[in-house]
């Protein structure tokens, strides 16, 4: 599923047409509404909520087809348009002329086709494409759940990787970063984030003698570790400047908030220091 990133959110344009819900019976209406919502939920999102003109123009311009696209706005309570995502009342309403007050039976809202990013309310059992949305998260470590060693339990402890960087962009043997104790081929740190996401990238802030990370794994829902990066340890070499190490990782089809990083300092022969680890997801 291809998601398009914009301003901290991600958007998916369907390739199939769907009705919002069948409008004959109120009970059936709500059933089909839930089924429709589930299509977006199944891929980790919700039917799009549009907050302002800038977002509206951007999403409209990126439509793969010049056709109608359902958005997550309805007036099941006639005349009161609310977003299905959080039931908040819509304040930005760029209606096509003559729409927005079509009355009973015209309870679902879609992007129009044409050249203007405007909306129209229409019969919910009409089939259009639809747009899903989900948030794009950037997270810092919230908890350290395991490690092999640490220089001390204070300024160079494993706990120093929590939160945003303390040392970066400085370079050197500086308190505020985790330093494993001694040269070793099997040092590691296991970290946790507050929210599970579909991790797309990892940024490791190395502030002293970087270059020792050789394997990164994400914890799968069944409890096993899934390797997303592994390099030949013979190729590791010391990096003598602070850096943000952002290796290309394998994308995974499951959300997670647990990461295991393995470090080998036998080739670099130096104290290694890690300041912070940021992940980004969901797109």
UniProtKB/TrEMBL annotation:
Q: Does the keyword Disulfide bond apply?
A: yes
Pfam families hit by this protein: Lectin_C, PAPPA
What are the entry keywords? Disulfide bond
Q: Where is the C-type lectin domain?
A: 6-133
Record InterPro entries = C-type_lectin-like (IPR001304), C-type_lectin-like/link_sf (IPR016186), C-type_lectin/snaclec_domain (IPR050111), C-type_lectin_CS (IPR018378), CTDL_fold (IPR016187), Galactose-bd-like_sf (IPR008979), PAPPA_SD_C (IPR058897)
Name assigned to this protein: Speckle-type POZ protein
The keyword Disulfide bond is assigned to this record? yes
Q: Which SMART domains match?
A: CLECT (SM00034)
Q: What is the lineage of its organism?
A: Eukaryota, Metazoa, Spiralia, Lophotrochozoa, Mollusca
């Amino acid at each position: 599923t291809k998601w398009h990133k914009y301003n901290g959110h991600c958007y998916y344009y369907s390739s199939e047409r769907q009705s919002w819900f069948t409008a004959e019976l109120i009970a059936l209406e709500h059933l089909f509404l839930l089924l429709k919502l589930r299509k977006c939920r199944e891929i980790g999102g919700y039917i799009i909520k549009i907050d302002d003109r800038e977002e509206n123009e951007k999403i409209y311009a990126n439509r793969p087809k010049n056709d109608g696209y359902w958005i997550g706005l309805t007036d099941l309570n006639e005349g009161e348009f609310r977003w299905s995502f959080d039931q908040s009342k819509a304040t930005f309403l760029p209606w096509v002329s003559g729409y927005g007050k079509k009355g009973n039976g015209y309870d679902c809202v879609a992007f129009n086709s044409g050249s203007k990013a405007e909306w129209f309310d229409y019969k919910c059992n009409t089939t259009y494409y639809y747009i899903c949305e989900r948030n794009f998260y950037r997270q810092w470590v919230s908890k350290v759940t395991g490690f092999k060693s640490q220089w001390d339990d204070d300024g160079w402890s494993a706990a120093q990787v929590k939160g945003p960087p303390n040392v970066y962009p400085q370079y050197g043997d500086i308190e505020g970063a985790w330093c494993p104790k001694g040269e070793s081929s099997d040092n590691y740190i296991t970290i946790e984030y507050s929210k599970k996401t579909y991790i797309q990238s990892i940024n490791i802030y190395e502030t002293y003698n970087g270059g020792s990370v050789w394997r990164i794994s994400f914890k799968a829902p069944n409890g096993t570790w899934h390797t997303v990066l592994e390099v030949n340890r013979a190729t590791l070499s010391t990096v003598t400047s602070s850096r943000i190490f952002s290796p290309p990782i394998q994308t995974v089809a499951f959300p997670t908030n647990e990461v295991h990083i393995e470090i080998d300092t036998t080739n670099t022969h130096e104290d290694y220091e890690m300041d912070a680890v940021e992940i980004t997801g969901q797109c």
